[in-house]
Structure formats: C-alpha cells, structure tokens
Amino acid sequence: MKRTLTKFFNFVFASLLITGMASGAAQAQEAPDALIKRLSQEILDTAKNDKDIQAGNQKKVYDMVESKILPFIDFPRMTSLAAGKSWKEATPEQQKQLTNEFRTLLVFTYSGAISQIKDQRVEFKPMRAEASDTEVEVRTQVIQSRGEPIVLNYRLEKLATGWKIFDINVLGAWLVETYKGSFSAEISKSGIDGLIKTLAEKNKKLAASSAAKNAAK
Fold it and tell me: Record's InterPro entries (predicted)?
C-alpha cells in the first residue's frame, strides 16, 4: 500500500510542475479550478512530448521544478502543517531550515515521476465554493488506459500573489498527513534539529543517487 501511494504521489507532484509556467498575474486572475484545469492539461502535453523528460533526464526536471513550480507552492504552510504543534516551538531559523529540507525532499522524491506520464488525462468535478472563500478544494480524478481512476484533489489558498497549493489528496490520503506521522516520531525522538538532520541526510543520499543515474546515461 505504501508503494502504491508513493507512486500516486509521484504523479501528483509531476502534475504540479506546469503550475509555474503561468505568470503570477494570470494565476491571480483565474479561478482556482480553472487554473488547475489548464495547468494539468499543459503538464500532460509537455511531459508526453518532451523527449528528454521521457528519457528520464533528471537534471532538466529538477531545473524545471526549481524555476517553475516552487514559487507557486506554499511550502512554509505545508511544512508547518506536517510539523504540527512542534512548528510553533521551533525558532525562526529552525522553521526556515525545516522548510528548505522538506521542499528539497519533495523535489528529489517526485521529480523522477514526470518521465512516467504516458496516456493519462484529468477529469474535473464541480467545485463547491463561495466567491469570498480564501481556501478551496479542487477535486479531480486521473483517468488511465488501465486500472481504476485515481482520485486527486488539491487544497489551495488565496494570497496577495494569487492562489497557491498547500496540500494534495490521492485516494483519500493527504500529502501533509502522510508526512505528519513520520515527522512527529522523529521530533519526539530527537527534536526539531533531529528532524532537520534526518531530512538533510536523506536529501544528500538522493542527490548522490540522482547524480550517479545522470552520469550513467
């Protein structure tokens, strides 16, 4: 089950990459469901037609993630939710370090999934929200040529710069909750600094593994 969810979260993060290809002004003007709909289609088209991405060029994927997606994800909020009550107990510097390491972990973990996109398409369900809402959930499902549809929902918040994603749900499992348990266990064992150290070490291993794969191509 864990491997299955990881695979689904891989597709989720890949589907977010195209978010940054819209300008900040366009994002601010669009309704959240219209934004996700347009961006989802663009990422599918891009991933299917880019030979380097299909070939698994991780450096190109990482560069795209860094320049395109990160400005449109509210990583501080995502990290604070995953850290739970311990977030308020952390110093500003610890919060900054934890956010950076968590962001790096997500980039390393899910960027490789972009090359796995083949024949998927996304269907959207009607959004239930008021015009005055500052937080909404956009509900979708991913249709594949084989297998059951994958339920895929997004939580977005409206900021001064426009709508930003702060959580993702796949088959009933929210990304933040998936990490919250492991974060809590590590914090209980060795504190915030211990969690930061654990994430940093994991990121170093992922970076080394990625470099080795690129060198072998």
Answer: MlaC/ttg2D (IPR008869)
pLDDT digits (tens, 9 = 90+) for 93-128: 999 999 999 999 988 876 766 656 777 888 999 998
Average pLDDT value over all residues in the chain: 81
Domain assignment of residue 200, yes or no: no
Domain membership flag for residue 125:
yes
Helix intervals (H) in 84-174 = 86-89, 92-111
Q: What is the pLDDT of residue 22?
A: 43
Q: Which residue(s) pair with 139 in the sheet?
A: 153
3-state secondary structure of 103: helix
- Residue 208 placed within a domain: no
Cα–Cα distance measured from residue 192 to residue 97, given in angstroms and rounded to the nearest whole number? 10
Instruction: Read off the pTM.
Output: 0.78
**Residue 131 lies in domain:** 2-73+110-190
Contact assessment for residue 150 and residue 171, using Cβ atoms and an 8 Å cutoff: yes
The per-residue pLDDT for 158 is 94
What CATH number does the domain containing 126 carry?
3.10.450.50
- Give the count of domains, the chain: 1
- 196 in any annotated domain: no
Backbone angles phi, psi at 37, to 5 degrees: -60, -50
| Percent of the chain whose pLDDT exceeds 90 | 39
